Known about the structure:
This protein is an alpha+beta fold.
Amino acid sequence: MLYVSHSQLEEIATEIFVRFEAPEKIASQVAASLVEANLQGMDSHGILQVSRYVEKIRAGRLFPAVLPKVEHTGISTAIITGGYGFGQITAYKGVEVISALTKETGVASVALRDVNHVGRLGEYAEQLAKDGLISMIMAGGGDTGGQVTPYGGKQRMFGTNPICWGIPTPGDPADIIVDFATAAIATGKMLLAKKTGAAIPAGCLLDAAGNPSIRPDDYYEGGVMLPFGAHKGYAIMLVIEILANLFGGCAPLSSKEHKLSNTVLMTAWSIERFVDRERFDELILELYTNIQNSEPTTGFESVRIP
Length: 306
């Protein structure tokens, strides 16, 4: 088996993107983002995406040198157009803009349009938490036609529509980061299972005939992914489709007007505008400690916090 350090992996990915005409600064930032996803255990959002990005560049769907443009639409709102460059670059511009707006106004929202795959949403929530802000990030869009069926259906209609929250915590505890797809499984994890020959968990997939399946190949042969949590997960998925996708002015994936895009809505709150920061830190640390010190059930060594 060949072992490659994370720094070597970043260098390799950076060189690949540079060879496809990405400026070195952009190439290295995207490569670092992908490798960080691997280091966080999110292989579906990691280095395996390099080949997908290269395919998009070759197909004229990803423009590696394009930088995002910012349009301020109010004192606490903005729209950032990605121009179908690397999604990570647009998302980091979103973090920069929303952080400045929120610190000035208390609450802010920023919509990202014409964006390619942004990667792991938690990466941006982590940065906003470091800035002392609470955040909620939603991503819609995806391939035209979708990958996920509505609850009770068997036709593709939605993307995996992930949602993420980030909450800063004081002192030693790690910030609370909640990040998950509202599909029962992420597209990248489906691809990873296909590449490795692994089965996927039950309850994630229907085959082309609408029968439950654990074979990732069935998805690529006309099957559909399911929302997590049956009707509850589907309801959240629908709201994200509206707020992240339609709210950003993009047609639904089921529409002939849809253009491939990873539309995103970022919202952030300044804690100090709602509660004294020392009081908030005291309370969240107490909650954090109470959870960690609570008695675990059978099969768990400890109660975990996201």
